[in-house]
ATP-binding cassette domain-containing protein
Amino acid sequence: MIEVKDIVKTFGENEVLKGISAIFQTGKNNLIIGGSGSGKTTMLKCIVGLHEPTKGQVFFDGENFTEMDFEQRVPIRTQIGMLFQNSALFDSMTVEENIMFPLNLFTNQSIAEKRDRANFCLERVNLKGRNKLFPAELSGGMKKRVGIARAISMEPKYLFVDEPNSGLDPKTSILIDELIAELTIEYQMTTVVVTHDMNSVMGIGDHIIFLHQGQKWWEGSNKEIAHTDNQELNDFVFASKFMQAAKEKL
Ligand SMILES: Nc1ncnc2c1ncn2[C@@H]1O[C@H](COP(=O)(O)OP(=O)(O)OP(=O)(O)O)[C@@H](O)[C@H]1O
């Protein structure tokens, strides 16, 4: 479980997060949604320590991450898997080398053990045997899957994903969502996904936080979202005529 308490983040005069508190449960797909510039990525970066919050605290399973120094954070950092936008694979490394990268950095495993783990992760994301390919030889969906394989290589307790569906066709997007959702349950991870993909919201949104102008404006599940009377959330989720028509049938 991850708890954020009263997170404020300012950049100069710009107060981007205005005191956000939330709990992200273990084994759940927690989604952060909101309009462009509402502070979603900033929130994710504050949780993982890529930004220091101006105020407030982040707890990983009760441990106060915010007040730890660099060294003290290492054990928690090794339990964090991340998939950021564009998959962030190393272009000069093969698929296998990309997946083994965190293992090289953080473990003393032998080459054989690391290769076994890479094979296991590749199989788990349906890319068995693609070890020797380079990122340039992969489709966007395959790159995401390699990114997921790398993110789970260390058997993380916490998984953070920023816009997993960007640049993917709708069918591949759903496959990626389903993979994240399956892995979350299988490994009982606390997963936090930043998205503005409505298929993801409706498909895997166990717990959703809607940010509006740097504040937590609404919180609930995908089942509740269809019946909300929150005006800003409605305007955001059901912006298109198609979604409005779909809502009426729910
Ligand atoms: N490093 C930074 N320095 C200064 N301002 C920043 C920085 N990072 C983000 N911001 C500002 O914070 C605000 C929120 O940005 P953020 O990327 O968190 O939004 P977002 O909700 O993820 O948007 P999008 O959906 O467009 O990716 C924006 O006004 C942005 O300019």
